[in-house]
Structures are given as C-alpha cells and as structure tokens.
Amino acid sequence: MSRPGSSDEPSRSARAEGFPLSLGDQLVANGCVTPRQLDLALQRQRAGTGGTHEAHLVGRTLVEMGCITQSALLQCLYHQFALERDAYTVDETVRPVIRMERVVKILDNRRVLDAVDLSIPANRVTAIIGMSGGGKSVTLKHMVGLMKPDQGTVWVGEEALGRLSSRELTRVRGRFSLLFQGGALFDSMNVFDNVAFPLREKTGLAEAEIRLRVMRCLEEVNLVGMERKYPDELSGGMMKRAALARALVTNPEILLLDEPTAGLDPIIENAIHYLICDTFMRTRYTMVVISHAVPEIFNWCHHVIVLHRGKVLFSGPSREVVTSRDPVIRQFIRGDLDGPIQVI
Ligand SMILES: Nc1ncnc2c1ncn2[C@@H]1O[C@H](COP(=O)(O)OP(=O)(O)OP(=O)(O)O)[C@@H](O)[C@H]1O
Ligand SMILES: [Mg+2]
Q1: CB 3.0-4.6 Å disulfide test: which of 153, 197, 293, 299 passes with 4?
Q2: Which of 138, 257, 259 to mutate to test the pocket of ligand 1 (most atoms within 8 A of CB)?
C-alpha cells in the first residue's frame, strides 16, 4: 500500500458533496465496486447477522467476497477522505464538540497552558501538533476531565466540565475513548482481555456479547487470530492496533489518540494512518490525533491545531497550515535548526 499522493490512487470521479452517502454508496460512487457487488455484499451481511446488517463493515465483506483487495479498499476510503478534507472549511456548518476557553494550567510553577482557546469540530479529524513539551498531552487530558484547569473553561457540547458533579463527569467521559501516549496495554492480559477490559469495567454486558464486540473490533483492526497473544509477543504496530481496538470497543463518540504512530517504522506508520482513516470513514467519530508525523499527518486530518509553549499558534484546515507565514510554524514544519526556536 503506497503513501497518499502516489500514482496509483483511484480516479477522482466522486465529489466531496457526496457526504453523507453511506459507506457502500461512496465506494460505488468512487468506482471502487459495482452496484451489483455492493448489493450482494449487503445481502450477505444481512444473511450473516440475521437482518441487523452493519453497513459500516461492508468494506470488509467486499474484501471477503474478493470484489476488492484490502489495500484497494483502504486507498478508496483514503481517496474519499481526501476529497472531504480538501473541501473542508471552518464555517457555521462546522459544529464544535469540545471547546477550551482561556484555559490556564500551571504545573511545577510553569504555565503549561497559557490561555488556550480552541475548538474541536464534530465528526472531523483534528491533528494537534507542536514541539515536545508544548502542552499537547496536557490539553488532551483537559478535554476529557482528567486534568482540571486553574483558570478558564472546558466545554464538551453544552456542558462545562468544571460545573459537573463527579457522576455527571463520568457520564460525559463515557462519550470519549482515549488512546494514551505509549499505548498502555496491560502486560498481564492477552489481546482479547485487553480489548474486553473497558466493556467489563464500564458495562454490565454478558460475556457472550462482550466476545462478539471484541472479535468485531479485532476484525476492524485486522488482529483476528492474535487474541490469545500477550503484549510482549506483539510487534509495535500490532500493539498500537490492539490499543486502537480497545479504544474503539465502547463505540465512543469522540476518540482522542495521543501519538498513535510514535516509535513505529514508516511503513507501519502509514498502515496506522490508513487504519485511522478507515475507522473515521466507517464511523464518523470525532477524532483528535496528537502527532509528530509532520508533514504526513496533514494528509490525514481536516483540521490542524498548532500548540507552542502553551498557546495556540494556528487553528484551521490542514491545507492552510502548510502555507502559514508564521516563522515558528514554518520552522516546525520544515524541521529547520535555524529560526525562532533555538534547540542547540
Ligand atoms: N503531571 C504533571 N506534573 C508536572 N508537570 C507536568 C505534568 N504533566 C505534564 N507536565 C509538564 O507539562 C509540560 C507539557 O507536557 P505535555 O506532556 O503536555 O507535552 P507534549 O506536548 O505532549 O510533549 P510530547 O510531544 O513530548 O509528548 C511539560 O513540561 C511536562 O513536563
Ligand atoms: Mg505528549
């Protein structure tokens, strides 16, 4: 599977206005499969699930039926995503789902967040980038209420987190999944139990239902067959995929991913980006991805926020960040040693 922008992308026949077509209709509109193949796949899903067919998994069924390869499917989904990404603008149709207003956080006498104002658009992919130690992970922890601001307000929808009781905060947190920096799988549990963990902790579901959901998630991240393996038997990329499955298993409305590709080789990094794109195109969850994969990450998100020394330097469509004239942003994107940021 090649990197985005390489020559073997499918022809650009579909238009971004196609959204919100169903996933299957998008694949047909893109010329990835024929309407007949889609019908057969949906029929097969209905037969296999007793009528409750899962449209978001239709791509998997098309692959199983041999109508399209896994790699071509991911390329098709990426192509559709790229059309949407390029058409994305911040206007009144974009609803913010998380807002931070003048948030200040002081840690060890340092103003780690210095009056941060930001909005995360609903049902889009937002990347947060910036120098190490710039406050990205701390920002993410504020969004989910794991850290409380010293000043300012964090809003999730219409709810100000600081005004909620602990019970209400738990309910709001139920809308989120957070993939921590480093993945943080439990070493003593195999892949199945790691992914099942949030369901066993947070829901009263029966084991049979838990098994169904875990296996479905492992299928979504292509880890079927690995469920009995322990973390130390997995490669770095498999660990990230298992952690992603654990984040997805609760069907979160908002998915926060803290450096999902850190420490991976470029091929696995590319594969994880495709997987995140695939997940977004199937589920339309709001996603926030902290990443050091600059400039690659700009291909994979609608919106970019640049955090620097506790302040938001840029917030806008990903295609605009690359043309920013801010000297700090330019230096960061190019990785230059010369510029306003002195590292040596
Ligand atoms: N719990 C804490 N107690 C004290 N200081 C903290 C705590 N958490 C973070 N910090 C400090 O806050 C600053 C920002 O940390 P943060 O983890 O948000 O950086 P980051 O932008 O995510 O960096 P990286 O890209 O390296 O992950 C750092 O100086 C860090 O040492
Ligand atoms: Mg961090």
Answers
A1: 299
A2: 138
